[in-house]
Amino acid sequence: VTGVQTCALPICTSFAPKSFMHHISSSVNYIIQSEEYKREYISKTLFQYTKSNIKVSGILEERKDENIKKLLNENLQIIINCLNDNENILMVVNKYDQAIIVSDYLNLILSEYGYNNIVTALRSDSDSNLNKENLKRSKIREFDNRILVAPAIAIERGHNIVDEFGNSKFDTLMFIVRPMSNPTDYEQHIKKVNGYIMNKYSKNVSEKRLDTYRKMRKDAFTIYNKLTRENYGLSSLENELRDDVTVTLFVIIQQIFGRLCRIADLNNMKYKPIKVYFMDGAFRAKKEGQYDFLKELILYLDGLMANDKYSNIVKSLYEPFYLALKKGGNISDEV
Question: Is residue 8 a contact partner of residue 237, using CB atoms and an 8 Å limit?
Answer without folding.
Answer: no
